[in-house]
Amino acid sequence: MKAKPNNVTVLMPGLVVEGNMILDHGLSVFALANGDIISTEGLLHVGAGGIVKGKVQGEIVRIDGLVEGDVHARDMLEINGRVLGNVFYCGTIRLGQQAALNGQLRRVSRELVIENARAERETAPERLESQGAAQ
């Protein structure tokens, strides 16, 4: 069996990303991301100094920076940074000593989180088209 490549995208400090992102691999954010982020596989990491202003959804989610929006983790969630929004998780959760959470913490079934991600993916092209028409 062929090993699957371990792809990771890194957004470095000083970068500003505008718009939603949907990835089929891991992501580390040390930049400012204005928009929702969905990672269907791998680790979605908001690093120290990284800021996401939007929803974050991933299989494995680690937050060492700041997320201003809801967080959805399908497997494992680790928070050492700050979350200003609600947190939905399916598997395990770990809150570090420096974790700050301003929102509700809810354990939900995996199906709810996956359906949420599918709905976001399916409507993303429509939103892009309507935004382009408005400009």
From TrEMBL:
* Record-linked InterPro entries: BacA/B
Keywords in UniProt for this one? Plasmid
Give the family from UniProt: Belongs to the bactofilin family.
Name by which UniProt lists this protein? Cell shape determination protein CcmA
Species of origin: Burkholderia vietnamiensis (strain G4 / LMG 22486)
Q: Lineage of this protein's species?
A: Bacteria, Pseudomonadati, Pseudomonadota, Betaproteobacteria, Burkholderiales
